[in-house]
Amino acid sequence: xxxxxxxxxxxxxxxxxxxxxxxxxxxxxxxxxxxxxxxxxxxxxxxxxxxxxxxxxxxxxxxxxxxxxxxxxxxxxxxxxxxxxxxxxxxxxxxxxxxxxxxxxxxxxxxxxxxxxxxxxxxxxxxxxxxxxxxxxxxxxxxxxxxxxxxxxxxxxxxxxxxxxxxxxxxxxxxxxxxxxxxxxxxxxxxxxxxxxxxxxxxxxxxxxxxxxxxxxxxxxxxxxxxxxxxxxxxxxxxxxxxxxxxxxxxxxxxxxxxxxxxxxxxxxxxxxxxxxxxxxxxxxxxxxxxxxxxxxxxxxxxxxxxxxxxxxxxxxxxxxxxxxxxxxxxxxxxxxxxxxxxxxxxxxxxxxxxxxxxxxxxxxxxxxxxxxxxxxxxxxxxxxxxxxxxxxxxxxxxxxxxxxxxxxxxxxxxxxxxxxxxxxxxxxxxxxxxxxxxxxxxxxxxxxxxxxxxxxxxxxxxxxxxxxxxxxxxxxxxxxxxxxxxxxxxxxxxxxxxxxxxxxxxxxxxxxxxxxxxxxxxxxxxxxxxxxxxxxxxxxxxxxxxxxxxxxxxxxxxxxxxxxxxxxxxxxxxxxxxxxxxxxxxxxxxxxxxxxxxxxxxxxxxxxxxxxxxxxxxxxxxxxxxxxxxxxxxxxxxxxxxxxxxxxxxxxxxxxxxxxxxxxxxxxxxxxxxxxxxxxxxxxxxxxxxxxxxxxxxxxxxxxxxxxxxxxxxxxxxxxxxxxxxxxxxxxxxxxxxxxxxxxxxxxxxxxxxxxxxxxxx
Length: 763
What we know:
Helix content is 57%, strand content 14%. By secondary structure, the protein is of the alpha+beta class. The model is unreliable at 1-26 and 749-762 (pLDDT under 50).
């Protein structure tokens, strides 16, 4: 089976590649047949037996038609009972043999066509495993899923009916034509001249039908993606009241699909109808000419009956093929879609002479690494750094600075555009991906749990691990007691995406999975940022204990979780801005110090649902700088705690603004609607950021929408309460209004320059 996935599939990939470009053209059906036949190669001997069975059936059908001539001319008209019994006996014996052969043929074909469909399915799935992350970033899930569902179903339908509707009729048609010439060449010549005319309709309509069917298939995939996106985005849709907008968008798309479907179905029907009408007319012509020749004595009655029987067989054969053409058109567009997926080039491929990475003992180095997910923007720019083996390294920086890109390149989800990354001096591009990733384990911010048991989810870290090792890893991750207390223990199903457990429980299961892998390099990608303070503190202690003897790389926006790191790398706009220990970076008064001061100054409850802001931190906001200490104390008491789950709306563009927000913990996305009505991300804000200062003094509509990307705790201050406080100091209010004017001008200036920081004041 593995050979079929990697060997046979790969060997036939050239065939698939050659035919992919032709499927959408006028010769799409022929190309589809060629593509499909390439999948029969591993089953050539079974296919040969199936072909032999078909030939036997065709020979018997032709013999049955030919027997009419001898029954009429040699038995019935001459009263020869011996010939009559001989013919009937031979026909009966032939029927038994053909029936048994047909049963065997059906079984073999069912086995072959099912295996071929399975090979295509396995080949697609195997190909998906080898595609780069960039493919998944640009592809719609519905488009991929349609290859496995609708497309394969169409191909299966064509294959199941291929013997009955194509292979057998074509063989019968060829043999019938040969026998027609043997019976009477004059009448056969007439049939030969007029039968091709029945295919004129197919010639003129097939290319249009194929093109229309391909367009319909594309629209069906987009429809599936649109529905899936809408289902996943229901919290946002309902929070922003977008039901009618998405309904109108779906109606527009569905109208286009409807018109395309009508055209496709009509063209398919016309292909079949044109051939049937032509065959009906030609049957009448052949019957008339044959009857006239028999009447004049040029043909015997037996020959006329046999000729008419064979011509009807030929007509039905052509009719079957023409009725099959609409299915063939749909299958050709479905195969085109499948081949389009299989044509996707695998990136980060491996050269034939790749080395296997042993357990690292030196360190990781970035050498002038530059990379961008698109050609328009670099996410990393000439980044150079070294992480010694066994050290604890942290990458911090503003949102969008390139921290996560470091991990994506280190895991070799992508390759650098320039420069190189080495482990123990070996370029990652010369190391097999399996050996590279076997030395690593990663804990994400949102860890994916499969809809399997807890035991099997943990075992994903090391599929060959025994149950004892799984439980040992769970104990190390401090989740064993919780699991053991469940009614089904380690056999408890996790539910879709781990929905049966809390965020902290999912994280600990993911940590156990990473521990079971026994990695040399442990990667923490915002691993604790979505947890409450108590759980985060406990999790950090667990990770610190488990990281001994390993290289630990932590990506985070929350500086309080990495102050004890051996080395902190501050990334800003894709460059290494600073590096050093927590104390060294604070003393340097650079980017790190600014980030630390922004996130400091909050007192948070252990449950993570209540927070207070210090007066010094409050005084750093532009609109608060001129307030006296007494007023700052009063303002601080007016802030309310607002706790938002992930993917929830905080403010909506166009709504009246009446609150100022400070992000204590969490992360939010700021978006603005473009001219086409689509929300575009303009910024991501995290711990310590703020938005809505203008709303404290001016009743103006919100200039952007804000949505949470993770569970977030915000402090909010209402305009009415703030203005009530300012009434005690009228001169101060005038000064603050001038500050607001400057903020608005700053907002407009940066908006025109497409800067992400615009919304901090203007949202």
